[in-house]
Amino acid sequence: MKLLEDRIRKDGVVIGDDVLKVDSFLNHQVDPDLMAAVGEAFYSKFKDEKITKILTVESSGIAPALATAMQFHVPLVFARKHKSLTLKDDLYTATVYSFTKQTSNTISISHKFLNSNDRVLIIDDFLANGQAVQGLTEIINAAGATTVGAGIVIEKTFQKGRKMFDEQGVHVVSLARIAAFENGQVVFADERDV
Ligand code: G4P
Fold first, then answer.
1. Per-residue model confidence (pLDDT) at position 152
2. What is the pLDDT of residue 194?
3. Do the beta carbons of residue 153 and residue 176 sit within 8 Å?
4. What does the alpha-carbon distance between residue 123 and residue 144 come to, in Å, rounded to a whole number?
5. Beta strands in 91-145 (DSSP E)
6. Is the CB–ligand 1 distance for residue 174 below 6 Å?
7. Is any ligand 1 atom within 6 A of the Cβ of residue 172?
8. pLDDT of 97-147, one tens digit each?
9. What is the C-alpha R_g of the chain?
């Protein structure tokens, strides 16, 4: 998606060998027009799949997931990472390890919001090691629902998430695919392919 790649080039900040800071438009300050375009792009890829629910994990997945849910006119459900006073019983849970933060989180979704008739599209901001998407697919399986696919805003193709989902047969669509960071610059996979 050219609009997104241009924005990453303009405002993304490469940190070290493997992290891209996108807090000015995606996961701290959020650009609503860019999110609307992201939602439209995922809709055009999955519109024939009879999606009934959009799933993500709080917090950074929520903005692109809501934009997508608004296109499909289906509910967005975000898995919660923190225990809440009102979120106690009847939960599907999965453990998600964050390589970036080196912490484990239990993510949970209420039984009320996912059932065996659901055809689910997972949306997330990054695909790196694939832990978040993996945790969500475990929850979808536990509910007896169907994972139709995963829409990712920014994929880092050099980390292990993509390979893992290709092996599992999960249909992953990424709007920007980063092959490497070289000298503080982003190299997109489509540039490397040519
Ligand atoms: P995953 O995203 O494929 O699950 O892999 P990983 O375990 O490596 O990611 C852990 C967290 O780091 C995730 O956020 C993910 O979105 C974020 N992340 C991974 N790579 C990058 C990157 O290059 N840049 C930025 N900005 N974030 C990255 P999280 O723990 O779910 O936190 P939250 O921000 O959603 O609350």
1. 98
2. 45
3. yes
4. 19
5. 91-98, 103-110, 119-127
6. no
7. no
8. 987 788 999 999 999 999 999 999 999 999 999 999 999 999 999 999 999
9. 16
Q: For residue 157, give Cα distances in angstroms to 56, 87, 110, 176.
A: 20, 35, 32, 10
Rounded Cα–Cα distance for residues 106 and 169 (Å): 25
Q: Are 38 and 60 in contact (CB under 8 A)?
A: no
CA of 58 to the centre of ligand 1 (A): 11
The answer, yes or no, to whether any atom of ligand 1 lies below 6 A from the CB of 59, is yes
Q: Which domains does the chain have, with CATH numbers?
A: 2-192 (3.40.50.2020)
Band (88; pLDDT cuts 50, 70, 90): low
pTM for the model: 0.95
Distance CA 191, CA 194 (A): 6
Whether 87 shows a pLDDT value over 60: the answer reads no
Place of tokens 């919660």: 80
Mean pLDDT value across the chain? 94
